[in-house]
Amino acid sequence: MDQAQLEKVRNGKGFIAALDQSGGSTPKALALYGVEEGSYEGEAAMFDLMHQMRSRIVTSPSFDGERVLGAILFEMTMDRQVEGLDTAEYLWSKKQVVPFLKVDKGLADQADGVQVMKPIDGLDELLARAAAKGVFGTKMRSVIKLADATGVQAIVDQQFEVGRQIVAAGLVPIIEPEVDIHSAEKAEAEALLKAAILVALDGLGADELVMLKLTLPEEPGFYAELVAHPNVVRVVALSGGYTRDDANARLAANPGVIASFSRADRGPERPAERRRVRRHPRPVDQGHLRGLDHLIGTRARRPVVHLHDDGARPCGRAPSRHGREATRRRSSPVGGGAADRARPAG
C-alpha cells in the first residue's frame, strides 16, 4: 500500500470522481454527455469514445489533487493510457489523484429485499494486475431495497468477505452497500446496515483497512461512529438519485463524510438540448476544456465538493454567463463540446 496515497485519502480534501461505467451503462452515459448511440458502430467504438471522454476530463487543468481526492476507474480504463502513461500512473504522478478500480460484475436478482453482487470471477488476477499498475483501492456495489435483516446481513457478509480478499492483495476496498433512496423502509434499512457494518468492522484486524461508500442518510450525523472507527480510512457518500441541492444539503449534515456523487451531478436529462456528434470527431485538445474548467470552478477547493463519472460541478457559485455561453458553443464532448453536460456518475 502506498503510504502517501493512504495519507491523502485519509486526510485530504476533495471528492471521489467515478469514471467507472461498464458496458451496460456506457451508452446512456455517452448520450447524457452528448454522444448519441447511433453516432458510433459497435462496442469497440463505444469504448474508444468513452475513453476519449474520460481522458478529456482527467487532462483538464481543473482536474487535480487539490480538488479531486480520488478517481474510480473501469477495468478497461485502467488498461488504457492517458498521454502515454497507464491511466492510474497518470492520475497519481501527474495529478496527485488516487486511483481506484471498480471490481464488481453487477448485481444478482433481488432476494430478501436486497441485491448482492454477482460472483467476481478472476478477482485475484485482477487485483494483482491493479496493484502492479499502481491502483490504491477498489470499489464494489450492492443494493438494499428493504429493511430485511436477513438480506442486509447477506450484503454485509459478502462485502466484507470480498473486502478481506482485496485487503490481502494489498489494496483498500471501498465497500458500497447502497440503500435505495426510494425505499419506504430506508431509515430502518440504514439502521440495520450500520449495526451490521459496525460488527463487521470490529471483526477486522488492526491492519485491515476499508472505506465505506454509503447512501446519504435520513438522520443527520448518522455515520459518525463509522467515520470514527479505526479501521475506516474514509466514509464517502453516494447521492443515490437525490437532486444536487438535496444531496448537498444532506452531505452538509453529515460531518466527516465526503462526496462521490454521480446521479446528482449528471443533472436532469435534457434530450432536446443534446447535439449529435460526428461519427469521427475532431481530436481532443486542451482548448476544448475551458467549459469543464467553468464547471469545476475556482471554489472547488472547499471541503464539500463533488464530481463523478463524466464531469464536475462544485458546491458554491454557478458558472458565469460567459462560461455557460462558451460551453454551449462547443459541439461535441470528445471533439470539443457538450462540456456543460460533462457531469458525473455511482
Description of the molecule:
- Helices cover 37% and strands 17% of the residues.
- It has one domain (3-341): TIM Barrel.
- The longest helix is centred in the middle third of the chain and has 20 residues, at 149-168.
- The two termini are 24 Å apart.
- It has 346 residues and is α/β, with parallel strands linked by helices.
- It is built from 13 helices and 13 strands.
- It has helices spanning 3-11, 26-33, 42-58, 75-79, 87-95, 123-132, 149-168, 186-202, 224-227, 244-252, 263-266, 290-296, 321-328, and strands at residues 15-19, 68-73, 81-82, 85-86, 98-102, 114-115, 137-144, 172-179, 210-215, 232-238, 257-259, 307-308, 311-312.
